[in-house]
Amino acid sequence: MTESTIIETAEQRILQLFTENKTLLDEGAGSLLRNHREVSMKAFQRMGIPSRKVENYKYTDLTKLFSLENYNRAFRPTSFDFDMQEVFTCDVPEFDTHILFHVNGWYFYQNRTDQFPKGTIIKSMKSAWKENAELVETYYGKIADSSADPLVALNGAFAQDGVFIYIPEHVVIEKPIQIINLLRSDEDLYVTQRNLVVLGKNSQVKLMFCDHTLAIHSFVANYLTEIFLGEDSIADVYGIQNQHNGTAYLNGLFVHQGRNSQLITNTISLHGGIARNHLHVDLLGENANASLYGLTLTDKDQHSENFTSILHSKPGCHSNQIFKNVLDDSSTGAFTGRIHVLPGAKKTEAYQRNNSVLMTKAAKMNTKPQLVIDNDDVKCSHGATVGQINEEALFYLMTRGINENEARLMLMFAFAHEVLANIRVEPLRQSIDRLVNKRLRGEVSRCHDCKLECIR
Amino acid sequence: MLIIKDLHASVEGKEILRGINLTINAGEVHAIMGPNGSGKSTLANVLAGNTNYEVTKGEVTFNGKDLLEMSADVRAKEGLFLSFQYPVEIPGVSMINFLKTAVNESRKYHQLKELSAGDFLKVMREKKELVQIDSQLTNRSVNEGFSGGEKKKNEIFQMAMLEPKLAILDETDSGLDIDALRIVANGVNLLKKPENATIVVTHYQRLLDYIVPDHVHVLYKGQIVKSAGKELVLELEEKGYDWIKKELGE
Predict the structure, then answer these.
(1) CA distances (Å), A140 to each of A21, A30, B141, in order?
(2) Inter-chain touch B71–A396, beta carbons under 8 Å
(3) Across the interface, do B93 and A411 touch by the CB < 8 Å criterion?
(4) Could A393 and B88 be called an inter-chain contact, meaning their C-beta atoms sit closer than 8 Å?
(5) Please, is A203 exposed, middle or buried when counting C-beta atoms within 10 Å of its C-beta (0-12, 13-18, 19+)?
(6) One digit per residue, pLDDT tens: chain A, 456 residues?
(7) Which of A156, A399, B85, B94 is 20 to 30 A from B33, comparing alpha carbons?
(8) Residues of A353-387 as b/e, b for ≥16 C-beta within 10 angstroms?
(9) How far is CA A341 from the centre of its chain?
């Protein structure tokens, strides 16, 4: 070919990156996974980078981000010449967890001595493709549908690594598994991460995702986690996002729930440039229970969106959502919550609430509940409030000698607490309480004592 | 201790207080009575620093300092306390954290060392006993789900913790049954010291059977129209507020 192609659009640039790196991307993958990648790329090309005209992306404009970014891609694991444990220490000493690291989307191997019950698999996605192909292929790409969402498709097209967790039937992992996702690079970087978690019948696990930046460069992070909850299984999924303003965090959590299974998610967004959490739960077995909580704190010109969709497919399922936002300066936020009760899903209970506090006149919050109920015999509710701080409560606190600033903080913290109270790991809850408190006070709340100045 | 001179205040442009004059000395208990809408609660709120009310004229000095210049929290730190007619529920703010912050903010203001967690709990136990407040209540969020009586008891408990120089009890008797009233009144009496003063704002005489005032004032249409000793309470009970209105030629 003698003609040089002019790359005009983000989609074209992404397609070119895909074509040029196809061999590298497919490394170690079986035909099914290779096929999934192809299908995902085609789906992405069909849908393109979503503009605000796309209903699901009405509140988060990605076209600007993608037209500007020409970041390096983390197609290969980053090599490090330092000890991760030394650079990054979680400052919650009493918080005993199994720690896993990802650096720029790649599972970071550590000489770990953690003992897990027999049959448990915790390893890099890339090696699971090879070593646990049958298991991975049963679930991979089945929970997050590439044909339905451009970011899911984009993730599917470029996914190379992440963590694969398999908890066998009747196994309970007592200690939380802490998955620390670090972004570290000496140039602007685009990162893809793909996780798969499979819980066997009657098993239990607590997962805690911590997302951080460890460098001042700009990042786009397209993360996606698929979780399958077998019958009677229980999963707690906590996410703490604490990244600098140059980060665009596009995170997807897609869950299939079997009969009687229980899911709790708690998404805490402390800091970031653009953050979009896409939470999708399919209640596929009777009497499954999903509780989704979220707290988002934004300031300056940060933007965040929690986009949820809960599908009630079977009778007797219960879902509850509470999402709260505190918006300062000229930050913007959105909550889009969809509940769909399918025909036949009798005795469904589905609740949803979004409460936001605007600290300034310039801050802006959009909230859009969407209930589709194709059934009777259901209890559903949704509610949304956007307001300022309760002035009566403020006066009450001040008449007790508490200065206005402190009184406001107390009320903000109380507002946030309803979400935080649902964290079922006590040391984690306390630690997040502390972080949120610091964040509300305007102190930088890095939850680790790393030496890098990455909050900007 | 408190000197109010020609105090005028309005809310949303409507004048409620139309020239209040009142002097309160240490050790005194003053009752401010009057029919509904006479401005009793407005006076209490203006003194406490509620910014919904606008002071249009007059001056108030509290222990020699200009009270109206102070924000609500500074007034509290200077020793003024308002027991609310309708205490506010604040879900998510724990009673303990709230009180500890309040007590220590005041201590800091007076350049005293902050109380340690242990000392604070000790003080809290003592005061809880004094006002006979249910132990359970202090483990909850501020006033959240409290009954009417519990809320009022909680106000007196906070008063006990903060040890104000001047306490203003705004309709503390409203919504209280006779037993709760007795407990609340008893708490107030136990907290009484020669160097402190109390203003009891009330519509009825009932509370004044238990907290005996030295001076009684009748507030009507934003002015104090009658002042006398405790005998005025009985007179008002007998003759009702219409008697005052008649005296004023209405």
Answers:
(1) 21, 12, 46
(2) no
(3) yes
(4) yes
(5) buried
(6) 445 555 678 999 999 999 999 999 998 888 889 999 999 999 999 999 999 999 999 999 999 999 888 899 989 887 766 666 666 655 555 568 888 889 999 998 766 667 899 999 999 999 999 999 999 999 999 999 999 999 999 999 999 999 999 999 999 999 999 998 989 888 999 999 999 999 999 999 999 999 988 778 899 999 999 999 999 999 999 999 988 888 999 999 999 999 999 999 999 998 889 999 999 999 999 999 999 999 999 988 999 999 999 999 999 999 999 999 999 999 999 999 999 999 999 999 999 999 999 989 999 999 999 999 998 889 999 999 998 888 999 999 999 999 999 999 999 999 998 899 999 988 888 888 888 888 888 776 554 444 344 443
(7) A399
(8) bbbbbbbeeebbbbbebeeebebeebebebebebe
(9) 24
Complex ipTM value? 0.96
Shortest distance, CA B90 to any CA of chain A (angstroms): 7
Nearest to A414 among B76, B90, B99 (CB): B90
Flag if B92 and A404 touch (Cβ within 8 Å): no
Answer for the pair A356, A373: CB distance below 8 angstroms, yes or no. Answer: no
- Single-letter amino acid, residue A449: D
A25 class by beta-carbon count within 10 Å (0-12 exposed, 13-18 middle, 19+ buried): buried
Q: How many CB pairs under 8 A join A and B?
A: 79
B197 with B169: CB under 8 angstroms? no
- How far CA B228 is from CA of B21, B40, B168, B232, B243, in Å, comes to 14, 17, 19, 6, 15
Do B218 and B226 touch, CB atoms closer than 8 A?
Answer: yes
Count of H helices and E strands in chain A? Answer: 11, 20
pTM here is 0.84
Identity of residue B189: N
- Determine phi and psi for B6, rounding to 5 degrees: 45, 50
Q: Please state the φ and ψ torsions of residue A251, each to the nearest 5 degrees.
A: -115, 135
Taking the domains of chain A in order of start, what are their residue ranges?
A: 10-440
Domains of chain B: 2-247 (3.40.50.300)
Whole-angstrom distance, CA of residue A268 vs CA of residue A325 = 10
Rounded to a whole number of angstroms, the distance between the first and last alpha carbons of chain A is 45
* Ordered alpha helix ranges (H), chain B: 40-48, 72-77, 95-109, 117-131, 148-162, 178-191, 231-247
Instruction: Please tell me which of the candidates A400, A414, A415 has its beta carbon nearest to residue B76.
Output: A400
> Which of B47, B55, B110 has the alpha carbon at shortest distance from B78?
B110
Pairing of strands B65-66, B141-142: unpaired
Contacts of B82 in chain A (CB under 8 A): 399
- Tokens for B67, please give them: 């009270």
As a whole number of angstroms, the distance between CA A148 and CA A43 comes to: 8
CA distance to A140, A207, A221, A276, B80, per residue, from A143 (Å): 7, 18, 20, 19, 62
Q: B77, A399 in Cβ contact below 8 A?
A: no
Q: Give B30's strand partners.
A: B199, B215
Three-class SS state of A283: strand
Amino acid at B241: Y
- Cβ-contact B213, B9 below 8 angstroms: no
